[in-house]
Amino acid sequence: MFAFTFTAAAQVPAAVTIALLGGFGFATVAPLQTRVLGTAKAAPTLASTANVAAFNLGNAIAACLGGLAIDAGLGYTAPNWVGALMTTGGLGLALLSGRLDRCTTVQPPARLPVTADARRAA
Predict the structure, then answer these.
(1) Does residue 31 sit in helix, strand or coil?
(2) With bands split at pLDDT 50, 70 and 90, how would you rate the model's confidence at 104?
(3) In this structure, are residues 17 and 7 in contact, taking their beta carbons and an 8 Å threshold?
(4) Which among 52, 64, 73, 86 would be 20 to 30 A from 108, CA to CA?
């Protein structure tokens, strides 16, 4: 996103930057989805849904902020800065999440022993 701000005025560099942007963006989806599903073993469908919803919310917020930047008279490359700042924030959150996962050990819930009364009831 930062690079596209500087290459947007020339066709060939802009096309290369857009291709790289798409490639990097596409390459992040599968590892993020795998991480979410691996972390949320108890409710993978809910976690997957929340992950996709977060992506869509990020897209909507970025579009709104990019439009506000253009409307403020910052130029047509201003949304690139908005996107780059949002991406940097997302990367920071991902790094923080990874660090917290390494620092925190979550124990699975203990299973209650099955009593003789419960066996008879079943």
Answers:
(1) helix
(2) low
(3) yes
(4) 52
